Amino acid sequence: MKNNNHLMPKVVIAALVAGLLGGGITYGGINMFQNSGLDTAVPNGSNAGGTTGTSNIKVDVQNQSEKAYKAVKDSVVSVINLKKSQSSNDPFASIFGENQSSKDSNKLEANSEGSGVIYKKSGNAAYIVTNNHVVAGASALQILLSNGKQLEAKLVGRDSVTDLAVLKINGSQIKDIASFGNSDDINVGETALAIGSPLGSAYASSLTQGIISAKKREVQLTGSNGQQTGNTASVIQTDTAINPGNSGGPLINLAGQVVGINSMKLASDGQGTSVEGIGFAIPSNEVTRIINELVKNGKIERPALGIRYINLSNIAVSQQKSVLKLPSSVENGVVVFDVTKDGPAANAGLKKYDVITELAGKKISSQDQIRSILYEQKIGSTIQVKFYRGGNLHTGDIKLSENSSQLKIND
């Protein structure tokens, strides 16, 4: 408090001095002209001498950012999500013998727009990667190329967990495709460029520039309803401007390689404080893995344990001792409260009230980690599990023989 009391007068004084200097220049200047005796009258006569022109000197300022942009921009597209319009219920339609409701229900209207990037051409087909939330709920999809041409697009596959989707278009007019770089090779501080259609196709091919702020930032994923899904993602953080409509567009390096697919940004801290310069992109190494599987299978199959569970921290300490019989040294884990009969966990011997503390060699501190660990595994693989039962530590092996679509529970 003492230091602050001394500091405040200095700030106020500095502001006052600045104000006085500004006023002194203005008023002092007027006094100077008034007392100088100079002829300050505006000249009469023609204003022809006031015309001007532009210089014919050309400045070559081409830099690496411009070269990278030119290499990628024609492969970046706007993705238009079309939905069937709602009935207008026009009260005058019946007067003219028109079934307006029927007409309206077949009419497609633009519901939302995002971005995408053409990454592959094979024969007469071309493939586009974008975000799942860009195409979710669409009755039809349309692509706007950088040259203004519109094409119909078909959904090849999409994945809500990673927020990625693959579209297919007629590739006969496609000449430019983007290439993926290795997202493991990017460095914090290096220049990053984002290309897309912020606020829609009216601003298509917009370029923004920033840096890589973090290579692997763990963030909570949210669904289309704005609620957290319980899943986390390891993403690239960048201060490159990413706005609504940039979703699905590429984050590129100065070599013109796609190192990420722009997916989301932080707009506020959830408590009313606005946030600037915190955007996220899905790393290209993750993107290529997911889109290859989407092209092959149309969906992503992930292994499941076949259990329901909650965080150990949600269980009263008294019950941790009386019911779970846990040693006081165990502070983190998840508690199993339901096991699917003949599921992977049941076949490995897990039961209700077991407390899982480690899975696939990784310690469990929250239930979100279970999903993250499982999503790194393949169906058919075997992982080790460590759990407490009746106060004793047990170790077992779980064969991940089934996927999450077969086991409709929270793992």
TrEMBL record:
InterPro entries found in the cross-reference section: Chloro_Bact_Ser_Proteases, PDZ, PDZ_sf, Peptidase_S1_PA, Peptidase_S1_PA_chymotrypsin, Peptidase_S1C
UniProt keyword list: Hydrolase, Protease, Serine protease
Residues annotated as signal peptide: none
Region (Disordered): 91-110
Domain PDZ: 303-391
Keyword Ribonucleoprotein: no
Family stated for the protein in its record: Belongs to the peptidase S1C family.
Name of this protein: PDZ domain-containing protein
Organism: Apilactobacillus timberlakei
